[in-house]
Known about the structure:
Blueprint lengths: L1 H20 L4 H4 L4 H24 L5 H14 L14 H5 L4 H24 L1 H8 L4 H19 L2 H5 L8 H35 L6
Helix pairs in contact: 1-3, 1-10, 3-4, 3-10, 4-6, 8-10
Amino acid sequence: MTIFAISCATTVLVLLGGLVVTADTYALFAEGGPIEGMSAIFLLTAALWVSTDIIRQRRWQSWHLAVLLWGAGMRELDMDKAYTQSGVLSLRLYSGDAPIVQKLLGGAVLALLIWAGLRMLARNLPGFLRRLRRFRAPEWLLVLGVGLILFAKTIDGLGRKLAPWGIDISQATSDFAGRSEEAMELVATILILQVVALFHARRRSGPRSSG
């Protein structure tokens, strides 16, 4: 629980600091703002922790977990759009007139992420589901965190997504959805970091597992 307490305390301090230096609360939820920045920090901290554990324990078969966490952290920093005309996760990069070097780079990153994701499903999902039925905290915290991220992505740009269906929402509702998305992602990243801490503690206290 120490990591969870530190994460929450750090978040509160950053948000309080943001409220002190600005009268615009929207700036806290803006792209590249403090809330998004904290989400990235927690994800990258989890990625560094997992990477260090893999290297120290020589658990090379778990490399995909580190790759996915690094990818999520860099995505939160919008690094996927920093070096290409469109994001490496966007079809426009590969179907448009972007330079071939960008397409190759984006394709390589995308292939690595897909490979890591499939490897995680094959190697980790069966054991995860078995432990899930035992109602252990790390697994259910991870389910909650991933669920929050998926729901957050669903309401991101809510007005734009509903417009093709002829549904208009007020600007206030759209702003609320946007702020909720950032807040839920922040909570999710805190939970993910806590899950990494709990799995690390379980591995140290129990028999070494294969990942």
